[in-house]
């Protein structure tokens, strides 16, 4: 029996530029930590080889230090690592792979940078790689698999990075095409893929491992690797999805109509808020009193969550008479406030958002002065 660990899309060196410096540093460091967890898992599960289906690195400009830290993280697994150049880390004439080979040392690292069979006879594997030599290819680089000759006693495994045709959303099929029946046409026992960041068996014997540590919000099962067992050439593979992620990236959509209790209830249900990267999408309408409560609630949760991104363009301020009475009970201020209220409630007013913000600021300021 042959047992492999299939992974892809580590994106080592990803900058995470939209985060605060301390969080950015943690997210970048976790790209190395997950490689270490993969090495430990491969050892613990007795894997014959680890296959990395492209985009181990975020680009060809990663530093020597980042390459070395990746190699250091890989040392716990003593078997062969086969690393395929993907679209982010393509095998250019001079690339990071040149530097990696110089630093690999005793590690059993095979850079699959040529479209030719790689025979791992001790592991029972005949590997057919389709390396990318530039970011975007118009041709299907796995086509050569169909006619490649490999020893009959070895499991025939393809390794590629790109978009399986007719199976992914249209936006994901912009380049580096892979035929959706490649595994059958090339008589593969397994086709290990990278590029799509979620774990999915996209076609028979054809699997995207996804990224082992999430780096974006879509809920498409990121944060895993595959443990694949093949009893003998021609046998159906047994595919096990194993979680490797530390951080949980998720989008939570809530509609608020009058109160903010749902926010605290939903966030309290998170298992590990300190390791949750949350995009909170709010819609509905709130009085100014409740809007202030919302901001106070979110301030508490920002300290508990690893990161909180608020999307509230569809959450409308709906000041009521009590709100306005708290700002001013009469006089010219009340007249001005009523005008702002009317403009904020008019969808056709181009200054609607500015009027709503002015109302909210007026409410907060009068509330602050009243607390003195």
From TrEMBL:
Keywords: Exonuclease, Hydrolase, Nuclease
Gene3D superfamilies from the UniProt entry: 3.60.21.10
Keyword Magnesium found: no
GO terms assigned for molecular function: exonuclease activity
Domain of life: Bacteria
Keyword set includes Nuclease: yes
Organism from which the protein derives: Aurantimonas endophytica
Sequence ranges assigned to domain Calcineurin-like phosphoesterase in this UniProt record: 3-97
Name the UniProt record assigns to this protein: DNA repair exonuclease SbcCD nuclease subunit
Listed InterPro entries: Calcineurin-like_PHP (IPR004843), DNA_Repair-Maintenance_Comp (IPR050535), Metallo-depent_PP-like (IPR029052), Mre11_N (IPR041796), UCP033093_metalloPase (IPR014577)
Pfam families documented for this protein: Metallophos (PF00149)
């Amino acid at each position: 029996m042959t047992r492999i660990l299939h992974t892809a899309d580590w994106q080592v060196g990803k900058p995470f530029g939209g985060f605060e410096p301390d969080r950015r540093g943690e997210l970048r460091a976790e790209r190395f930590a997950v490689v270490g967890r993969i090495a430990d898992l491969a050892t613990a599960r007795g894997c014959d080889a680890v296959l990395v289906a492209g985009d181990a690195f975020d680009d060809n400009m990663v530093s020597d230090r980042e390459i070395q830290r990746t190699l250091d993280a890989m040392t716990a697994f003593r078997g062969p690592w086969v690393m395929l150049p993907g679209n982010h880390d393509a095998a250019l004439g001079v690339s990071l792979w040149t530097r990696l080979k110089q630093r690999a040392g005793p590690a059993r690292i095979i850079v699959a940078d040529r479209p030719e069979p790689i025979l791992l006879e001790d592991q029972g594997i005949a590997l057919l790689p389709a390396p990318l030599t530039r970011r975007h290819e118009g041709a299907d680089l796995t086509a050569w698999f169909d006619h490649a000759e490999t020893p009959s006693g070895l499991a025939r495994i393809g390794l590629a990075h790109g978009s399986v045709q007719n199976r992914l959303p249209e936006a994901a099929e912009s380049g580096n095409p892979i035929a959706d029946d490649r595994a059958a046409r090339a008589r593969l026992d397994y086709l290990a893929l990278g590029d799509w960041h979620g774990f999915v068996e996209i076609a028979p014997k054809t699997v995207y491992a996804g990224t082992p540590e999430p780096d974006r919000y879509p809920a498409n099962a990121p944060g895993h690797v595959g443990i694949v067992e093949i009893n003998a050439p021609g046998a159906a593979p047994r595919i096990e999805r194993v979680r490797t992620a530390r951080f949980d990236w998720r989008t939570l959509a809530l509609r608020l109509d009058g109160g903010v209790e749902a926010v605290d209830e939903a966030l309290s249900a998170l298992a590990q808020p300190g390791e949750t990267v949350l995009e909170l999408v709010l819609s509905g309408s709130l009085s100014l009193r409740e809007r202030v409560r919302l901001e106070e609630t979110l301030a508490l949760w920002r300290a508990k969550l690893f990161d909180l991104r608020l999307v509230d363009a569809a959450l409308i301020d709906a000041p009521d008479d009590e709100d306005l009475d708290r700002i001013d009970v009469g006089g010219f201020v009340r007249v001005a406030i009523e005008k702002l209220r009317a403009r904020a409630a008019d969808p056709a007013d181009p200054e609607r958002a500015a009027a709503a913000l002015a109302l909210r600021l007026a409410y907060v300021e009068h509330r602050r002065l009243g607390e003195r």
